[in-house]
């Protein structure tokens, strides 16, 4: 029977991005975290829009952007600024939004 050399994901990450704590690895992990956050915000937008039976085009009209921009936001493919996030969620009827800064407390966004 053939033997296989298996490599763990941690070993591959170290090989490709460098060990934990190196600038390359820290940058990769920061980008990954940003991408995940964009994905989760996009999912929240999509779910809220669909719950109201709105098309991407209709939501775009409410906030003054094209359907393509709503699509990018929902897919996490576009950086969303706080003013845009506020406009989107207000258009969806979300009346308050807060940023949780951990030990520093929460900040009201709108």
Describe what this molecule looks like in 3D.
With 110 residues, the chain is mostly helical. It is built from five helices and two strands; from the N terminus they run αααααββ. It has helices at residues 9-17, 23-51, 56-63, 67-75, 82-91; strands at residues 98-100, 106-108. It has a two-stranded antiparallel sheet with strand order 1-2. Strand 1 and strand 2 form a beta hairpin. Helix 3 packs across helix 4. The longest helix has 29 residues, at 23-51. The chain starts with 8 loop residues before the first helix and ends with a strand.
Question: What are the defining features of this structure?
Answer:
single chain, about 110 residues, mainly alpha, two-stranded antiparallel ribbon, 5 helices, 2 strands, about 60% helix, about 5% strand, elongated
Summarize this entry quickly.
The protein is mainly alpha-helical and 110 residues long. It has helices at 9-17, 23-51, 56-63, 67-75, 82-91; strands spanning 98-100, 106-108. A hairpin with a 5-residue loop joins strand 1 (98-100) and strand 2 (106-108).
Strand content: 5-15%
Query: Gyration radius, to the nearest Å?
Result: 19 Å
Major sheet details: 2 strands, antiparallel
N-to-C order of helices and strands: HHHHHEE
* Approximate helicity band: 55-70%
Mean pLDDT: 94
Going across the major beta sheet, what is the strand order?
A: 1-2
Cα(first) to Cα(last) distance is 64 Å
Number of strands: 2
Which regions contain 5 or more consecutive residues with pLDDT less than 50? none
What structural class results from the helix and strand content?
Answer: mainly alpha
Number of helices: 5
Shape annotation: elongated
